[in-house]
């Protein structure tokens, strides 16, 4: 399937999950992340969920990261197609942007090259690790600036499709994708 059709289909699938189901699946997914080979690394990027988009709730995963004393960077839209990343601390103040995304107002900047693990939002993915996001290209531009050994981990409620037929050369593939039921390695 093509990305446009996948975006529509998987947005609808997420909306059809009850809030209770999303909460349960988000917790299962966070617990599944404990089986990833990433816990010897220190600096993690984590997106904060958009409540109105029925995304995976990353709060349980954030709790795990903080409980393991990991450094967590969270993104803020800094311009057209660009993300800036800030270290999450007790002093970090969040504010929703125009898209409903909770973002840090200010703080300690974390450069993409400093990140060891990047947790990625997505709508769909395929068996080769091609990720389908919202289509703005924010994460592909950001990932192109990360170190080559930074692990890219998608988070989703649903298993993969066989193939995203219009994956492009600039689409940065994932190393892993985690669902509530399974970890997929690429």
What's the pLDDT, averaged over the residues?
Answer: 95
Helix content: 10-25%
Span from first to last CA? 19 Å
Our Rg estimate from Cα atoms comes to 15 Å
What string, H for helix and E for strand, traces the elements in order? HHEHEEEEEEEHEEE
Q: Identify low-pLDDT runs.
A: none
| Structural category | alpha/beta
Strand content: 15-25%
Order of strands, widest sheet: 3-2-1-6-9-10-11
User: Number of DSSP helices?
Assistant: 4
Shape estimate: globular
Largest sheet: 7 strands, mixed
User: How many individual β-strands?
Assistant: 11
Quick structural overview:
The protein has about 190 residues and is α/β, with parallel strands linked by helices. The chain has helices at about 5-15, 20-35, 60-65, 140-145, and strands at about 45, 70-80, 80-85, 95, 100-105, 115-120, 125, 130, 150-155, 175-180, 185.
Word description of this protein:
Helix 2 packs parallel to helix 3. The longest helix is centred in the N-terminal third of the chain and has 15 residues, at 19-33. The two termini are 19 Å apart. The strands form three sheets. The chain has a seven-stranded mixed β-sheet. The protein has 186 residues and is an alpha/beta fold. Helix content is 23%, strand content 24%. It has helices spanning 3-15, 19-33, 59-67, 138-143, and strands at 43-45, 71-79, 82-87, 94-96, 102-104, 117-121, 124-125, 131-132, 151-155, 176-178, 183-185. The protein contains four helices and eleven strands. The mean pLDDT is 95.
């Amino acid at each position: 399937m093509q990305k446009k059709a996948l975006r529509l289909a998987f947005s609808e699938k997420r909306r059809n999950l009850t809030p209770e189901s999303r909460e349960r699946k988000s917790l299962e997914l966070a617990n599944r992340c404990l089986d990833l080979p990433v816990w010897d690394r220190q600096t993690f990027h984590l997106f904060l969920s958009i409540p109105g988009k029925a995304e995976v709730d990353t709060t349980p995963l954030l709790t795990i990261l903080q409980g393991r004393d990991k450094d967590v960077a969270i993104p803020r839209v800094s311009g057209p197609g660009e993300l800036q990343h800030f270290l999450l601390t007790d002093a970090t103040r969040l504010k929703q942007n125009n898209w409903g995304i909770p973002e840090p107002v200010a703080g300690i900047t974390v450069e993409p090259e400093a990140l060891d693990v990047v947790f990625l939002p997505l709508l769909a993915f395929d068996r080769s690790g091609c990720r389908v996001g919202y289509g703005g290209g924010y994460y592909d531009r950001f990932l192109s600036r990360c170190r080559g050994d930074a692990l890219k981990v998608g988070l989703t409620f649903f298993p993969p499709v066989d193939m995203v037929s219009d994956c492009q050369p600039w689409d940065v593939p994932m190393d892993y994708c985690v669902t509530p039921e399974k970890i997929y390695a690429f």
